[in-house]
Design brief:
This protein has 465 residues and is of the alpha+beta class. Among the domains are: 5-78, no CATH class; 91-101 and 381-448, conserved putative lor/sdh protein from methanococcus maripaludis s2 fold (Beta Barrel), CATH 2.40.420; 149-240. 27% of the residues lie in helices and 36% in strands. The strands form four sheets. Strands 2-13-17-15-14-18 form a six-stranded antiparallel β-barrel. It has a six-stranded mixed sheet with strand order 5-8-12-3-10-11, with no helix packed on it. A hairpin with a 5-residue loop joins strand 19 (392-393) and strand 20 (399-404). The longest helix has 43 residues, at 149-191. It starts with 17 loop residues before the first helix and ends in a 17-residue tail after the last strand. Mean pLDDT is 79; it is low at 12-19, 266-287 and 446-465.
């Protein structure tokens, strides 16, 4: 049967899809609500409508697949990440050079007067004459002051009286020992009697008295020795009333005048920064009350507090550069001349005193000024040097640097490191002068859109406005 010409529908092989054809037909909203194909009612006969309906059902799978592909493509376009176009690493290099490398230790402190000598007379007495003034330059053996002869004799008589008193103290101490021993012996004899009232406590107390008496005798004899020595010294010094300079230097302190009474004692001694001379014998002292203090011609030094971790690298004779807070434009040089043997603990931080000489002291420098110094502990000349940042350490403890090959890729090169400071390192082997070593690297990434031109701000996939 030949189909009705009014029921012509494009063939499946036609370039126009049935769905497109169907959509182009007049729509009837009421019919579409009754059935998915309600629009077919617009055709005049039932056979025509059935033919078209069958053909549409034949292709509904393809239609659904097309819809799914369209929806999936839209979702992918909205949510896909940007394609990584590659990550590029940039390396910063620096050429190895040949030169000198120095290692230093830094510390802060103050200017101080050091290596002074306190001068005392050999015997106490009254000052008869003073031959020097503060600031005078003296040589060893120069006369500083003299003592009055009468006062010297009076001092000798006084020391003799002290000696005789100590003799009496010894005699009294011997008597006390004898008395204590006799008392102990009497108690021990009475303790053996049948009706004795002596207890063990009495015996113990008597023994303690004997021990105490013996200790008193020992002390008295020691005092007698001291007073005898003092008497002998003052007696011998009666004819030596002239006090001379024991060292060459400058009169740093003058604390006497004619008629003053001076003592041969220098008091307690607790520091090695100054020495006292009494009767030709040098001792240590911190006393600033000495009759005369002699300092070196350049008395100013720098006293630094150096952390204990830096101490092993320090040595006497090392050169130092010195700066002063009050005089920022002044740079002095000096050398290490003394390192303390004992440290000082302050809040858990241990430091050691280190003394520096000042080669040429500016006249404006004063005792107590704040200062800072950099001490050169080691130096290497004509060596290969690279930045410290270029040297890295393997897990086995060996060192290496990175050098870029012809393709710009870093290659590890094992090296032997010599001296090292906070900024530079000496390379003993593995690197030649001019080799460019990597000191740092940085990575950067870029992205490009390879999925079409569709994009939404905030969803990725393309440039944002």
């Amino acid at each position: 049967m030949r189909p009705d010409s009014s029921c012509q529908v494009p063939s499946p092989l036609s370039r126009v899809h049935p769905w497109s054809y169907a959509k182009s037909l007049p729509a009837n909203d009421d019919a579409r609500q009754e059935t998915p194909y309600g629009w077919l009612r617009s055709f005049p006969n039932r056979r025509c409508r059935m033919t078209i309906s069958k053909r549409l059902r034949r292709y509904r799978g393809w239609i659904a697949l097309g819809v799914l592909i369209a929806v999936g493509g839209a979702v992918y376009a909205l949510t896909r990440p940007a394609t990584d176009a590659g990550t590029q690493t940039t390396y910063t290099t620096e050429a190895a050079t040949k030169g000198a490398l120095s290692v230093t230790v830094s510390g802060t402190g103050n200017i101080a007067v050091d290596n002074t000598t306190d001068v005392y007379p050999a015997v106490s007495g009254t000052v008869a004459t003073v031959k020097v003034a503060k600031g005078d330059t003296v040589s060893k053996g120069d006369v500083l002051f003299t003592l009055d002869a009468d006062s010297a004799k009076a001092s000798t008589a006084k020391s003799l009286a002290s000696y005789r008193q100590s003799q009496q103290s010894v005699a009294q101490a011997n008597a006390n020992v004898l008395k204590a021993k006799n008392n102990l012996a009497t108690l021990e004899d009475r303790a053996g009697e049948p009706s004795s009232t002596v207890t063990s406590a009495d015996i113990a107390a008597a023994k303690a008295d004997v021990t105490s008496a013996n200790a008193g005798l020992t002390s008295a004899k020691a005092s007698q020795s001291v007073t005898l020595s003092d008497y002998n010294n003052t007696k011998a010094a009666e004819g030596d009333l002239t006090v001379t300079a024991p060292v060459s230097g400058v009169i740093y302190s003058l604390d006497i005048a004619v008629g003053d009474a001076v003592s041969a004692s220098s008091g307690s001694s607790t520091s090695s920064s100054a020495s006292s001379v009494m009767g030709g014998t040098a001792t240590t002292s911190t006393s600033s009350g000495a009759p005369i203090v002699i300092a070196p011609k350049q008395p100013l030094s720098v006293l630094l507090a150096i952390n204990e971790v830096d101490l092993p690298s320090l040595a006497v004779g090392q050169r130092a550069d010195i700066e002063f807070d009050a005089m920022p434009d002044l740079l002095a040089t000096g050398k290490v001349y003394e390192i303390a043997s004992a440290g000082t603990n302050s809040s858990g931080v241990v430091t050691f005193d280190v003394w520096l000489s000042i080669d040429v002291a500016d006249p404006a420098l004063r005792d107590g000024m704040s200062s800072a110094a950099t001490i050169v502990t080691a130096i290497a000349k004509d060596v290969i040097i690279v930045p410290s940042a270029a040297v890295k350490t393997n897990t086995d403890g060996t060192s290496y640097v990175q050098i870029l090959d012809e393709n710009g890729a870093p290659q590890k090169v094992t090296v032997e490191v010599g001296l090292a400071s906070s900024t530079q390192a000496q390379i003993l082997s593995g690197v030649a002068e001019g080799d460019k070593v990597v000191t740092s690297s940085s990575s950067g990434s870029s992205s490009s859109d390879t999925g079409g031109g569709f994009s939404m701000p905030g969803m990725g996939g393309g440039p944002r406005g």
